[in-house]
Amino acid sequence: xxxxxxxxxxxxRRRCREDEKLLGTILDExxxxxxxxxxxxxxxxxxxxxxxxxEPKSCYPQWRRLHRALERGRPLQESFSRLVxxxxxxxxxxxxxxxxxxxxxxxxxxxxxxxxxCLAAQCLDREHSKVLVHGAEGTDTxxxxxxxxxxxxxxxxxxxxxxxxxxxxxxxxxRAALCHFGRVWKAxxxxxxxxxxxxxxxxxxxxxxxxxxxxxxxxxxxxxxxLEQPEEKQKHLNPLYSHNPLVIWPSVEPQSIxxxxxxFLRWIRPCQQLEEAWEEMQRLxxxx
Length: 288
What we know:
Layout: E1 2-3, H1 17-26, E2 33-37, H2 41-46, E3 63-67, H3 74-87, H4 94-104, H5 106-125, E4 131-134, H6 141-153, H7 160-172, H8 181-189, H9 211-214, H10 216-219, H11 223-227, H12 230-236, H13 261-264, H14 272-287
Parallel strand pairs: 1-4, 2-3, 2-4
Helix pairs in contact: 3-4, 5-6, 5-8, 6-7
Family: Belongs to the protein-tyrosine phosphatase family. Non-receptor class myotubularin subfamily.
Protein name: MTMR9 protein
Pfam families: Myotub-related (PF06602)
């Protein structure tokens, strides 16, 4: 599983023989790989006018390009803002709530991201092929797809330590947009026994400030060290966890896409009963 930014072919269809050689050495003789582009085909074509573009088929004969358009930038931010506004309404009517949720289009973005990640995972696991993922800059949607694919495929990424390592290398080190966390929760929520991390382990992370700008490592204590404390770690573990080394396949059917209530509705819905139920579940499992 590889990730990169777009090739800089430009309007004159420039070639980069170093890139061609690099991707050529990744594949064995006669093997085919997949390039998953997180832009639509028209958007990728239009990017040539700005110096970007796609890999020319003639220069990458062993690679098959697949376009899976994922929103990024302003449209995604506006969708996120509309969702937050809808969730901040303390007393909406049923029609108003459903209408605002639908108009935000947030759950559609979640479904598209999960579907693309499942495609990447399927190419790796079932086709036994190499996969290169990129969009424009190689951030945001690219990192989202590669991170979700790792959660689907690699059971070590679904442990507490593995998940923190995934966050560090795939999001925090490259300052990716953490509003994508809803996709992670969706991947976990449909298979609750497959990850030792509880829902609460995801909630603190989106509140992190821009680390590099604020010099977090120099001026603050590590969030990871705090989460690794035994008393804190216990709060974030999933009592239903049962280790499974197999691949997990989250459902992407429209009926199964849910809103992450523990994050988006945590300020207007009392969570005491939910926390009490979670603690009782832990006691039952430990007693058993």
